[in-house]
Amino acid sequence: MKDVNIHITYVDGTLHNYLDYGIQIPMKNSRVTSTLESIVEDYGPVNSLSFEEPQSALEILRCAHDMGFLSRTKSDQEQLVLETYELLSPSGDYTEYYKPEIATKPLTDFIDRAYLHVLGTYESSLKALKHDFCYHLGGGMHHAMSDRPGGFCMFNDIVSVLKSLKQSQHIGNALVIDTDAHKGDGTAEMSQQDDFISTYSIHMKDGWPLNRPFKKSHIPSTCDVGVSVDDDYLSIHRESLNNFLKQYSGDLAIVVHGCDVYEFDALESSSGIALTREECLKRDLTTYEALKNQGIPQVWVMAGGYGDKSHLVFSQTIKEILKRYS
């Protein structure tokens, strides 16, 4: 039996119930816990990564984020969380997704939780460099930009980790393969000046950044592939990814594993793609095998996936990759 702790990571401190904070977005903690339960059933216990000082993540974040933005983690904590989870309307009022009167815990808890996601992605990347594959049940915060949060993402763990690994000479070049339903706009913005990071994003042709007025959201990735619900997603992804990998390579690939492409995802803004569970698995195995065939170590991070059924998509992919890993 495989040592699952080499290949699967999570940080217990990132788990929480959003309703405890008055947040009513359909982001279920069960996507992690239920995925873990499924893996444990087949492979045995998975050890949680432990970090006694979450704030140590700032050293990684300073490699990519503006210092003025990072200072808000101390001076403007609650506002930062409200912006991250889009709980404020343009007029500054609370949206229908935020009911502070039902909260039993402070919003500021999310700061340390976001730090832990970054540390988890960093440690998982080191495992991938050593063992060729690691799946982190966390991270994937691809909408956060250099100077602000957005799209439920406080910090961009993806670019921050890659820049930190580059500075420490763990890697030379790197790839980001983003399969979330929404374009990895933050990743594109934060890596646009870095020739060592090449980014691939396959996402809804329409629908993101929704009605956001930020021009930065339209910064292109190295390769952007927009698809609609009527397109042959699997054929487009296979051809586009293979062409991308013919032009770009790296010492590490971060795969942003978005399962909000699933036809029964609960987030309305993900409806521009509607894959079956079987199609989601085929997409993911295409991604895994393409990188494996190129000999590129890969760390997967858990991006979009909302509602009570997303864990079915995450867990089927992880278990199938573990079967194929050698």
Which superfamily, in CATH terms, is the homologous superfamily?
A: Histone deacetylase domain
Order of helices and strands: HEHHHHHEHEHEEHEHEH
Helix content: 25-40%
Backbone structural class: alpha/beta
How far apart the termini lie comes to: 12 Å
Shape: globular
How many E strands? Answer: 7
Mean of the pLDDT scores? Answer: 91
Which CATH architecture would you pick? Answer: 3-Layer(aba) Sandwich
CATH topology: Arginase, Chain A
If strands are numbered along the chain, what order do they take across the biggest sheet?
Answer: 1-2-7-6-3-4-5
The largest β sheet comes out as: 7 strands, parallel
Q: How many structural domains are formed by the residues? A: 1
Q: How many alpha or pi helices?
A: 11
Q: Rg from C-alpha positions?
A: 18 Å
Residue stretches low in confidence (pLDDT < 50, at least 5 long) are: none
CATH class: Alpha Beta
Strand content: 5-15%
Provide the descriptors you would attach to this structure in a database record.
globular, 11 helices, Arginase, Chain A, alpha/beta
